[in-house]
Design a protein that fits this description.
It is a single chain. The chain is of the alpha+beta class. The protein has helices at 11-15, 74-94, 132-137, 146-160; strands at 37-40, 44-48, 58-62, 99-103, 120-125. The relative contact order is 0.18.
Length: 167
């Protein structure tokens, strides 16, 4: 067994410069966020997590910078939850995980990586995906890259979020 395993995809996150600016507030100008967006709604967007816990890990994010659920306007809350349900359906029908974690980390003490801007995580799960790597080496193995995941999910979101035609 080696003493350590190399996980270079985490280097930019861990060692890279930290900004006081919120990465979610202006996705059109945020390098590295724009390219990961899967769907843009009226008040909320869906984006892949650049540093996923598992392949297909994405987030549903309101455009407006709000810290707590109670800060959302009714229309934002409705669209947020509707897109969480749509994202769940797209993940389940497209990449077919055995399960799904859906949750929010609110505030620093709650584990928020982006403090002050509410977002919902959807993390696909498979039996055995939490193996010895995370417990012994503090390293995660992500089997499918972001580009491949985006190529599969983006058209599925386009279909799922398309306006429904009346007959």
């Amino acid at each position: 067994m080696p003493d350590a395993l190399y996980a270079p995809w985490r280097e930019a996150f861990i060692l890279g410069p930290k900004s006081d600016e919120c990465i979610f507030c202006d996705p059109a100008t945020r390098k590295g966020v724009r390219e990961l967006i899967l769907h843009e709604g009226k008040r909320v967007f869906i984006v892949l997590n650049r540093y996923p816990y598992n392949s297909g890990h994405l987030m549903v994010v309101p455009y407006r910078h709000v810290a707590n659920l109670e800060d959302l306007r009714t229309a934002e809350r409705n669209e947020l939850m509707a897109l969480v349900a749509t994202a769940s359906e797209v993940i389940n029908t497209t990449i077919k995980p055995a399960g799904l974690n859906v949750g929010m980390n609110i505030g620093r003490a709650g584990g928020a990586g982006v403090e002050g801007h509410l977002h919902v995580h959807l993390v696909p799960r498979w039996v055995g995906d939490n193996n010895f790597m995370a417990t012994v080496f503090d390293t995660r193995v992500t089997s499918v890259g972001l580009g491949s995941v985006k190529k599969k999910l983006k058209p599925a979101f386009a279909r799922a979020c398309a306006p429904k035609r009346r007959r």
